[in-house]
Inverse folding.
């Protein structure tokens, strides 16, 4: 697999919204937002809403996880990619499928029953913790940071406080 120009991989259960569509895209200089999500890949209404947020900032692609694994290595060198996924398990699927993700930004994982809050915007359950530990074992450096000018928190250090 050729090395695609992935500027940032971000977990955000909201996928593309103002922070991603404007702030991260502009700060990184991304010209392509790739949403890797099986559900959104076949939901044109969600795709249209996300494309409206991006406006003229960047183009968007909506691929299943499998299609992302299959085609990301064919990305052109001029494509500066912001890769957005919904869950840590999605990231693990991509990494195990050969997508070269070395750094991971965790921006938003909503609180829900059975989850513990590790930052104001990130809550995890046992499955998430196990997945993050596996990603760490695979060499992925992980941070918690909502917006680019925020101080980055080490995700593994945050998990130790549980």
């Amino acid at each position: 697999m050729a090395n695609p120009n992935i500027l940032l991989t971000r977990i955000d259960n909201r996928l593309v919204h103002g922070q991603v569509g404007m702030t991260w895209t502009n700060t990184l200089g991304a010209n392509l937002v790739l949403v890797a999500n099986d559900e959104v890949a076949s939901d044109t209404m969600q795709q249209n809403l996300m494309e409206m947020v991006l406006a003229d900032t960047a183009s968007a692609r909506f691929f299943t996880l499998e299609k992302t694994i299959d085609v990301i290595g064919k990305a052109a060198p001029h494509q500066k990619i912001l890769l957005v996924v919904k869950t840590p398990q999605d990231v693990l699927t991509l990494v195990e499928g050969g997508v070269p993700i070395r750094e991971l930004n965790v921006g938003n994982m909503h609180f829900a029953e059975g989850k513990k809050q590790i930052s104001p915007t990130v809550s995890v359950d046992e499955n998430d913790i196990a997945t993050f530990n596996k990603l760490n074992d695979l060499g992925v450096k992980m941070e918690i940071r909502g917006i680019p000018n925020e101080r980055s928190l080490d995700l593994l250090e945050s998990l130790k406080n549980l």
